[in-house]
Write a structure and sequence with these properties.
It is elongated, with a radius of gyration of 18 Å. The protein folds into two domains: 40 residues, no CATH class; 47 residues, no CATH class. The chain is 38% helix and 14% strand. The strands form two sheets. It has a two-stranded antiparallel sheet with strand order 1-4. A two-stranded antiparallel ribbon has the order 2-3. 0% of the residues are buried. A hairpin with a 5-residue loop joins strand 2 and strand 3. Helix 1 crosses helix 3. By secondary structure, the chain is of the alpha+beta class. The protein contains four helices and four strands, in the order H-H-H-E-E-E-E-H. GO terms for molecular function: heme binding; iron ion binding; monooxygenase activity; oxidoreductase activity, acting on paired donors, with incorporation or reduction of molecular oxygen. Its cofactor is heme. InterPro entries: Cyt_P450, Cyt_P450_sf. It comes from Quercus suber.
Length: 88
């Protein structure tokens, strides 16, 4: 597996206790972790309360005090959020 071998190579090239400057350049490791978090987020849903009136990116007005809930688990599986699809 090319990706697995690239990740292992990236890890071996770093010091025993990598620092931020080393980790930020680990392209394959970052991509692998990001994809894992997209497919298996640590929380299936999250909720926030608007502290001020706001407008969501889609144009929906959210009044102060309204609770907005979103589902990272489901959103990570929507075609429009997958890299390269619907983003350009």
């Amino acid at each position: 597996m090319k990706i697995e071998s690239e990740i292992l190579k990236e890890i071996k090239e770093k010091s025993e206790e990598p620092v931020y400057d080393e980790v930020k350049d680990m392209v394959y490791t970052h991509a692998s972790l990001s994809e894992s978090m997209r497919l298996y987020p640590p929380v299936p849903l999250d909720s926030k309360e608007a502290v001020n009136k706001d407008v969501l990116p889609g144009g929906t007005v959210v009044k102060k005090g309204i609770r907005v809930t979103y589902f990272p688990y489901a959103m990570g599986r929507l075609e429009i959020y997958v890299v390269g699809i619907g983003l350009g």
